Amino acid sequence: MGQFDLHILGCGSALPTRHHLPSAQVLVVRGKSFMIDCGEGTQLQFRSTRINFNKILDIFISHLHGDHCFGLIGLISTMGMLGRHAPLTIHSMADLEPLLKPQLDYFCKGLPYEVRFQPFDPTKNELIYSDRSLNVYTIPLKHRIQAAGFLFKERENERHILKDMIEFYHIPLKEIPSIKAGNDYLTADGELIPNSRLTVEPTPAKSYAYCSDTAYTESIVPIIKGVDLLYHEATFSDEEMDRAVATCHSTATQAGRIARAANVKKLVIGHFSARYVDEKLLLKEAKARFDKVELANEGNYFEI
């Protein structure tokens, strides 16, 4: 596994089946684990994939339909039984806290750790999480209720400094942070050494966009432009276009159109309707619009 990996725990839609479970994912970025949505069956999927869910410090809930959040109370309870002590932060729209708090008070009395609620406005594209290596932004989506996707974007990396140049110019350690930031170096003799001689281009920052649940909307294209990996719902085939419009979901063809318009590097489609036992039709329709596409499936992981 690499430094930026997506793990699929569930990629079905509202009805759990023997084939797929409701939405849940884990994104691992430089050793930190972030959870996206938490449908029923998430705990079992953690066991199956052997991902340590006590390492999850932040959970991002896209919207308050059950297939995206019914697994929360069970997961929180189990974390307590396993002796968790680190706080857990749940990022969601404000309505989740008054819905979940009574359940916590009733079922999780004496929880040995703190559950924190961090509300966001799903109608805005804004920064909702930041650490030394990662920023997370909301992506306003178009659904029957307010919903948001999430853009996980690494901070820009510093330039790579050339060790032999450091030794050649006898550059002191205190100057290295400035050089990595892109600055030139002035020697003790007054010679200005250009940064391009001392460093090479930084490793490109990686990015992942999660867009589920949503009807087709091109308003998300500027936000997700050029991401390394896009997960976009593809609930229905073109034959069910009327159903997609009525329920504010997308077809696989529409997911492909969004990926092409945004010029993403790779597309993964999911949130499959329970009517499909084999999603090859959905893959075919998405590929007709965008070539670099794969199907999500429980247990799969994608190295970004």
List the helices and strands and how they pair.
Elements: E1 4-10, E2 24-29, E3 32-38, H1 42-49, E4 56-60, H2 66-69, H3 72-81, E5 88-92, H4 96-107, E6 115-119, E7 127-130, E8 134-140, E9 148-154, E10 160-161, H5 163-169, H6 176-180, E11 185-186, E12 192-193, H7 195-198, E13 199-200, E14 207-211, H8 221-224, E15 229-233, H9 241-247, H10 252-262, E16 267-270, H11 280-287, E17 293-295, E18 301-303
Word description of this protein:
The protein has 304 residues and is α/β, with parallel strands linked by helices. The strands form four sheets. Strands 6-5-4-3-2-1-18 form a seven-stranded mixed sheet. Strands 7-8-9-14-15-16-17 form a seven-stranded mixed sheet, with helices on one face. It has a two-stranded antiparallel ribbon with strand order 10-13. The protein has helices at residues 42-49, 66-69, 72-81, 96-107, 163-169, 176-180, 195-198, 221-224, 241-247, 252-262, 280-287; strands spanning 4-10, 24-29, 32-38, 56-60, 88-92, 115-119, 127-130, 134-140, 148-154, 160-161, 185-186, 192-193, 199-200, 207-211, 229-233, 267-270, 293-295, 301-303. The chain has two domains: 4-157 and 203-303, 4-Layer Sandwich (Metallo-beta-lactamase, Chain A), CATH 3.60.15.10; 160-200, no CATH class.
